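Write out this protein's structure.
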Amino acid sequence: MTMAGGRVRAALFPQVAALALCALAGCATVYNKADNKPWVPGSSPSMGAPSDVMHENSIVLTFSGGGLRASAFALGVLDALEDARTADGDLLDDVSLISSVSGSSLTSAYYGLYGRDGMKRFRDEVLLPGFESGMRLSLSPDNLLRMLHGGLNSREAFGDVLDKKVFHGATFADLYRRGRPDVRIHATDLYNRVPFPFLPDVFNVICSDIASYPIADAVAASMAVPLVFAPIVVRTFPGDCPPLPEGVENLRRSARQSQSLDSIAQSHATYRDSKVHYIKLADGGLTDNYAVSLITNLRIAYGTPYAPMTARDAVRVRRLLVMVVDASHAPSGDWIDHEEGPVGLDLALSATDAAVDTAAKLAVDEFDRMIDDWHKSVVAFRCGLTKEEAARLGAPAIWQCADVTFTLAHLSVRDLPSPYRERVQSIPTRLTLPKEQVDEAIEGARVGTLALPQLEVYRRDRYRAP
């Protein structure tokens, strides 16, 4: 045996011995306790969530994952929309819905709760301090044991910090009171392998009250990278439940249209019939790293020509801009320069990234195809209304049923102009970043957003006379 090989074995011996001792002694599991409350009989099925959020001119944002890089990138997009002036304000006024996953959920939830004032302090109070200082991140023997027994970090290391220092105990009731934009945060149900969106309809299925649920827990679930974090847990309360939402019933009827919808319908069935008592939630990027599948699935689930909008939204909207924002990390690693490798952690991470990226690209391809069908369906619905029906749904006196446009724009790190592209691509997926990298991600997204031709077309046509 070489000296190098001996050193490796000597270095590994304490970890192996510790694992063996742990196996014999039965080390304690690292886990989070469920924090959700049962549904209150008699309460509204919507639990106070906003509806009819579309205005005449509306913007829908979907934000991808990517740690604090994605958080900063999402902030740059919001900054750009605020910089884009209009005759009566700016384009940030038009943001009606934000769908987010993983790191970007930190930004979307914060903006949803605190609005423009919060956006102005988000960089200094949330992004720059970061979150890694109180976390377990090293591969010490003790941490390896924790990783094998649930995760390096429990709620105390991250969720509690979010709750106390970032969201200050806010719940979904606080978020819903703000109204527009409608913020939708996504996690992943690890057991059923399906997306878990934090929506009233889903909490109705598990007979739980989303209004009292902490925003911090939803964001922590959305960002809970497996092994680094123990899953966030919510429990089901079968028994005294509200009626199943119409969308869930429609989803069950239409589930056979696709395997993904069938999996979601099957998971909902297990939530209600007591087969699943505790739902273990992890990073939403595992099932949809672009946060687009919810919109696609809701179109089928609700079975209306305008879903996921409401009928009133469909009549009111005139210009809709949908922006898919991708802050995900490009492939990296030097093992492509050698015949050997990848090995160890690089191999595990590369395999996971391949699965996540492939699923995300398939989801966004389906979403892109859906946009045109959505637009045609909304036009057909509007033009099928009588004048009285249109007026009852809020149509203005001067209204043309076919005068509605849907525009789709993609913003990704790889499409940024140089040198922003290279700078943002070099930023790692971490939960603490140096000030320079935070600012590079913000500025790169801001510049990239303002350069989108679809944004300029939307702004130019925004107040075109009908």
